[in-house]
Write a structure and sequence with these properties.
The protein has nine helices and 16 strands. The chain has 289 residues and is α+β, with helices and mostly antiparallel strands. Helix 1 (13-23) crosses helix 7 (195-214). It starts with a strand and ends in a 6-residue tail after the last strand.
Length: 289
């Protein structure tokens, strides 16, 4: 049994390859090939643009793939959503498709654009957005560089953004959010009913989520006398209950927990003040919830 897995080529590619590597399944690509290999003989990978992923998964050319919710909605095709993976090109957050117009324009609301031209890559979603508001606009497909089109080539745009910096650099003002999106693992409906393929896809999703949960977190190990345990636990009150185990010396305990990496700077000195000893901070590859 093998599953054919689609890896998003383009803006999400590097972040996706890093996530797979952290999950323990490095993907080996070749700049001259759209096929990629892994250390798992049951997984065949193919690099496909995120915009096309849902089509090939729905048709069965791929058993599963990673793509954005935005492109699944845009396609209108029926696929199984296996898992959300909240990461993007630059961050771990969601991205937004926003309606934006020139800073010096008079447009303030979607309704102000009646009869105007809107440029976007997300054509169907944009048409539905304006139709729901009974606003008659001309939606034109944009092949890229959408931010530079207003005001000469379009009156406004619907464009994806993580931080808004590119829009501001091109003197555009966000008017509304059209759609929030994040990366998803999607599966073919027939493949999902195959128990062996489903188990493989679910295990893949489990490991990728575990790698994401570990990102920006670290593990902490420390030793503490029983009489000082409450003071140590007071430092860790904002965290999930740590694992506590006995040592060979019955007067001492070992404490093991996971914290946000950004917290370590403040937490470790406080643990030392609470008489913790042998404090070890270590990196994490996966945290399976």
């Amino acid at each position: 049994m093998k599953i054919r897995l689609g890896i998003p080529k383009g803006s999400l590619q590097e972040a996706t390859l890093q996530l797979f590597a952290q999950a323990g399944l490095p993907i080996h690509t070749n700049s001259r090939s759209y096929f990629a290999s892994t250390g798992d003989s049951e997984i065949e990978c193919m690099l496909i643009r995120a915009q096309e992923m849902a089509r090939y998964v729905e048709h069965g050319a791929l058993d599963a793939g990673l793509t954005g919710l935005d492109w699944v909605v845009e396609s209108g095709l029926e696929v199984v959503t296996v898992s959300d993976l909240i990461y993007a090109k630059q961050s771990r957050g969601k991205v937004r498709w926003v309606l934006a117009a020139p800073e010096n324009s008079s447009f303030q609301r979607a309704e102000d654009l009646d009869g105007k031209i809107i440029a976007t890559e997300l054509v169907n979603v944009t048409r539905n957005y304006f139709a729901a508001r009974c606003v008659n606009v001309q939606v034109e497909f944009s092949w890229g560089a959408t931010e530079v089109k207003p005001p000469m080539l379009a009156d406004a745009i619907v464009e994806v953004t993580e931080t808004g910096s590119s829009l501001r650099a091109n003197h555009l003002r966000i008017m509304d959010t059209v759609l929030e999106s994040n990366t998803q693992i999607i599966a073919n409906k027939s493949s999902w009913t195959d128990s062996a393929k489903r188990r493989k896809i679910e295990n893949l999703a489990l490991m990728l989520r575990g790698a994401m949960e570990a990102k920006d977190r670290v593990g902490l190990m420390l030793n503490v006398r029983k009489e000082d345990l409450d003071r140590v636990l007071d430092v860790l009150t904002a965290l999930k209950r740590p694992t506590i185990s006995t040592l060979s010396d019955p007067e001492w305990l070992a404490v093991n927990t996971v914290i946000e990496e950004s917290q370590a700077w403040q937490v470790i000195p406080r643990l030392k003040e609470a008489n913790a000893q042998g404090i070890v901070e270590y990196p994490l590859n996966k945290v399976v919830m």
